[in-house]
Specification:
The complex is a heterotrimer of chains A (155), B (719) and C (121). By secondary structure, chain B is of the alpha+beta class. Chain B has 21 helices and 23 strands. In chain B, strands 15-19-20-18-17-16 form a six-stranded mixed β-sheet. Chain B has a five-stranded antiparallel β-sheet with strand order 4-1-3-2-5. Chain C has one domain: Response regulator (Rossmann fold). The chains are: A mainly beta (155), B alpha+beta (719), C alpha/beta (121). The interface between B and C is large, with 66 and 65 residues. Chain C: Keywords: Phosphoprotein. Chain C: It comes from Paracoccus aurantiacus. Chain C: One of its GO terms (biological process) is phosphorelay signal transduction system.
């Protein structure tokens, strides 16, 4: 296993995993711009509940999405130990508010299983794949559906 | 940034094309106004010519061939063989438009625009028949030197290789006076010839050689016979003489052994000086009068570039062009603007911490901070002026819109531009293009009458649209005025009633009726015209202007015309705002939208229904809203407890009062775009970063009160 | 080849092309926007060769070359004319004005260099 990590083959991906509520999620590390501590977001009027607001990221107005609320769970209140994971997909950059960052995983494509139909419930459409390690189940997020943008749905 | 010099020149070429197209338009405008002096025509010619030249360098064939035809026609005009009438000048304008399109599509590597062939045919039709023939397809391949072949040269029938002792060439070269007068040098030609192969060169000196002196310094006295012992194509030899074949006598023939012995013109020579080149001897057949100025010896003198004023362009009658220019990548300027924005924010943060630290107002730190703030403001203003551009390019685009629009509705329209050199922020210019286009189209389509109607009203058949720009009270004023029929107010009123925009018995002033034009979905054309189209009305124009922080107003006199006035902030990046608090949030309201602030007093509140309220403000009733509630930050509450109201005003004069919890300060804020991620938020124009690093939203009170989600808006890309 | 060249063209693109082609070959290039400007530059510059466009504002290529030939120290300076056409009458005019040779636009940098070589030695 250690050998594998040293010689990461082409189909291996590095993922950043984090905790939202009691569940583990992850995103490709290549999409993560930075991780920063919680700062109070300025709320946007008439925005859906998962849009926490905007924060100042070194002069850029960065929208922050409450991942918990986005996935249909209770909103994260926003306390000091919470973390904002700044991600970029295409033109869109946004912060994901999560409870805590857990780990960096190296996973090969074959370890990723397609999300089962059962998961295609309320939050299923945001899950791209599942990873089962030792004792944990980690969900790989599909950022394109999570981030607001042109194909934004009425949440 | 690319490091490929050709790519950079290509970029620079297209930038130059824009300038050339601009001067082309200017010159055509002058021609259109009856200016037919040679310099004006020359400017047109040169602009097209330069575009062609540059395009050729990059092998941009579509551009070259169109420019070539255009140039051919302009050359005819220049030479006086073609005197353009009004319709020809119209065609020149359209050809300029087409040229612009081709430049654009070429630059963007898109397909060439349609209609090129038609335009080429129209241009060609202007030419006389013989000129047309002259113009038949000119090969314009990226070939280097022109190779001229003397068709009179004797044909060579004998293949030299077939005879063993018959290879190479015999060349007799006798310079004329013109050879030296044109800066050519026989010696250098001989040297070039020797580069082709080993040469035996004989200098044929006449017996009666006069002593050299000033009078005959450039009179050629010598001739040469060269045996080139190399089997090279004759064209290679001719190329050596390419520059001089009109100023010398030249004979080139395949070498025969006998040539080596028998001089062709024995009567002219006696002694024979024979030399093999190189090296080149120091004796030259020519001695320039100022003989120390021999070009070879002067090669060592290196003179550095002397600064010089840039010559004014002939067409720029306004002489507004600055003396020296530096072309800078817009990205660099934008980065500078962003940095200045950061500086302004940082300075505000610093000021706040100094205040929090309890420094006395009289302390040195406060004094230093004060001058720091002054400097920051000065830097900011200087940088903003860098972004400023004359509105000329925008106005020229509108001239084109007028031409196209008037042609499609068969109206005669002249566009007059005033104040083209008024400078406005680049982003404002870019974002004005769409609304201005729409307004110009409206003016052509609806504002101006048909020629017969105009004649009947004893107006000139040709309508006029005046587009003007000026600076007024720290803002930019752009006016679009037509001399048409004016707003047909009874008709506007009828339509508004029909569309249930107003009650049938509503009593409206003229100004109020004019305002109806800006209501969403309003269109005065009884039938939808192809030109103005459906759905894109003045409401969209207004939304676009508003999103630029601008205001739009109308004045109209029946039978005399209509004027739309757009007032815009000089720059988009900074805004004077009032920082307020509502429902625990800090918000910024543009100062330009606030008329007054006042204390809210219970006796002035008129409750209409559960949610509707009005407030009496100096004999006037204005709608009253709680800002926090309107933004969805808090539920209904007893507003009597609240304290302060902002009286806001719209461009159209509509007023509304907004209740805020507290007014914090008035200050300049740097506008930050919310970006596409957030989409359009009703009532929010943009965001800014305050002294504490927190983001505050900048409100658009008009959108907040009257807009709503259904309000059409242009995509805002501020920041 | 280290020559001192004056390139005269009203087109910035052309000037850039000339500058890049020539400086790449180790030449020192000074540019001017038109004939009048070039004559101003020539007051302080003694180039080994001049390359000039034909169509220019204020003073065209022909007028410019005639003026150069009237300056004693520049009487023998090679001048190459940049033309877009190889029409014979254009060449005749150029020659009458005193042009040493011509280069047809768009030019091939190698040919430009060899032409310069030929007229400057």
């Amino acid at each position: 296993m250690a050998d594998n990590q040293l010689h990461a083959s082409e189909d291996e991906t590095e993922l950043l995993s984090f905790r939202v509520g009691t569940q583990e999620y992850c995103v490709e590390i290549m999409l993560v711009r930075e991780i920063r501590g919680w700062t109070r977001a300025t709320p946007l009027p008439h925005s859906p509940p998962h849009v926490k607001g905007v924060i100042n990221l070194r002069g850029i107005v960065l929208p922050v999405i409450d991942l918990s609320a986005r996935l249909g769970m209770d909103p994260i209140e926003g306390v000091d130990r919470n973390v904002i994971v700044v991600v970029s997909v295409g033109e869109i950059t946004a912060g994901l508010l999560v409870d805590a960052v857990s780990d960096i995983l190296t996973v090969s494509e074959k370890d990723m299983q397609p999300a089962p139909e059962i998961a295609a419930g309320r939050s299923g459409r945001y899950i791209r794949a599942l990873i089962v390690t030792d004792e944990k189940l980690i969900r790989v997020l599909d950022l394109k559906t999570i981030l607001p943008g042109e194909n934004q749905d009425a949440a | 940034m690319t490091t490929d010099p050709m790519a950079e020149i290509r970029t620079s070429f297209f930038a130059e094309c824009d300038e050339l197209l601009e001067s082309l338009q200017d010159a055509l405008n002058l021609m259109d106004e009856g200016e037919h002096d040679s310099e004006t025509i020359n400017v047109v010619f040169r602009a097209v010519h330069s575009i062609k030249g540059g395009a050729g360098a990059f092998g941009l064939d579509a551009l070259v061939s169109f420019a070539h035809q255009y140039e051919t026609v302009m050359d005819e005009v220049r030479s006086g063989r073609l005197v353009p009438d009004a319709s020809a000048i119209k065609l020149f304008f359209r050809a300029a438009d087409m040229l612009q399109d081709i430049v654009r599509t070429t630059r963007d590597e898109q397909h060439p625009p349609p209609g090129i062939e038609d335009m080429l045919a129209l241009l060609k039709a202007l030419l006389h028949e013989d000129a047309q023939e002259l113009d038949e397809p000119v090969a314009f391949t990226p070939l280097g030197l022109s190779l001229e072949f003397d068709l009179g040269a004797p044909a060579i029938d004998v293949a030299p290789a077939e005879i063993d002792d018959d290879f190479g060439w015999t060349i007799t070269f006798t310079p004329n006076a013109g050879l030296y007068a044109s800066g050519n040098e026989a010696l250098l030609i001989l040297r070039s010839l020797s580069n082709l192969g080993h040469c035996v060169i004989r200098c044929l000196v006449p017996e009666d050689l006069p002593p050299p002196d000033e009078s005959n310094a450039e009179t050629p006295l010598l001739s040469w016979r060269i045996i080139l012992e190399e089997d090279v194509p004759e064209s290679d030899i001719r190329q050596v003489f390419d520059f001089v074949n009109d100023v010398c006598q030249l004979q080139i023939s395949p070498r025969k052994v006998i040539d080596d012995l028998a001089p062709t013109r024995p009567e002219r020579i006696s002694p024979t000086a024979e030399a093999a080149l190189p090296p080149v001897g120091s004796t030259s057949a020519k001695k320039p009068a100022g003989d120390d100025a021999c070009p070879i010896s002067s090669a060592a003198s290196k003179v550095s570039l002397v600064p010089h004023p840039r010559p004014a362009r002939p067409v720029d009658t306004n002489a507004h062009e600055p003396a020296t220019m530096v072309r800078v990548d817009m990205e660099k300027i934008d980065r500078l603007v962003n940095l200045i924005g950061e500086l302004v924010i940082n300075q505000a943060m610093l000021a706040q911490s100094v205040e929090t630290a309890g420094m006395s107002q009289q302390s040195d730190i406060m004094a230093g901070l004060e001058s720091f703030m002054t400097l920051t403001r000065d830097i900011k203003e200087s940088v903003m002026t860098i972004r400023a551009q004359p509105v000329k390019s925008l106005f020229q685009r509108m001239a084109r819109i007028v031409r196209e629009a008037s042609a499609s509705v068969e109206k005669e329209v002249r566009l007059k531009s005033v104040g083209e050199y008024t400078e406005v922020d680049k982003t404002v210019i870019e974002r004005l293009a769409d609304p201005l286009t729409q307004m110009i189209r409206n003016a052509v389509d609806h504002g101006l009458e048909r020629p017969d109607v105009r004649r009947a009203a004893s107006k000139p058949p040709e309508g006029q649209i005046t587009l003007s720009a000026s600076h007024r009270a720290g803002r930019v004023l752009i006016e679009i005025e037509d001399d048409g029929a004016g707003i047909d107010r009874p008709k506007v009123r009828d339509i508004a009633i029909q569309k249930r925009l107003i009650a049938p018995d509503a009593s409206l002033t003229d100004a109020e009726i004019d305002q109806l034009l800006f209501l969403p979905g309003f269109s005065t054309a009884t039938e939808v015209s192809a030109l103005s189209g459906r759905g894109v009305g003045m409401d969209v124009v207004k939304a676009a202007i508003t999103s630029l922080g601008g205001r739009i107003t109308t004045t109209s006199v029946p039978g005399q015309g209509t004027k739309f006035s757009i007032s815009l902030p000089l720059t988009l990046a900074v805004l004077d705002g009032m920082v307020v608090q509502a429902a625990g949030q800090t918000l910024v309201v543009p100062l330009s939208a606030i008329i007054e602030t006042a204390k809210l007093e219970e006796q002035n509140i008129h409750r209409l229904s559960a949610s509707g309220m009005m407030m009496r403000f100096r004999q006037e009733l204005v709608p009253l809203f709680d800002l926090g509630q309107k933004l969805g930050f808090r539920d209904m509450r007893d507003i009597a407890a609240a304290g302060i109201v902002l009286l806001t005003v719209q461009e159209d004069g509509r007023r509304a009062a907004l209740i805020v919890d507290a007014i914090m300060e008035q200050r300049q804020v740097v506008i930050k775009g919310l970006g596409q991620t957030c989409g359009h938020i009703p009532g929010v124009a943009a965001a800014t970063i305050l002294g504490d690093g927190q983001i505050a939203l900048i409100l658009d009170p008009g959108d907040l009160v009257w807009g709503g989600a259904s309000s059409p808006h242009f995509d805002t890309k501020a920041g | 080849m280290s020559l001192n060249i004056l390139a005269v063209d009203d087109s910035r693109t052309m000037r850039d092309m000339l500058r890049i082609s020539l400086t790449g070959a180790g030449m020192l290039v000074t540019t001017a926007d038109d004939g009048v400007h070039a004559l101003e530059v020539l007051e302080a510059l003694h180039p080994d060769a001049i390359i000039s466009d034909v169509n220019m504002p204020r003073l065209d290529g022909f007028g410019f070359i005639e003026a150069v030939r009237r300056i004693d120290r520049l009487r023998a300076t090679p001048i190459l004319m940049l033309t877009t056409e190889s029409a014979p009458e254009l060449k005749a005019r150029a020659r009458n004005a005193g042009a040493t040779g011509w280069i047809v636009k768009p030019f091939d940098p190698q040919k430009l260099l060899s032409s310069l070589q030929m007229v400057t030695g």
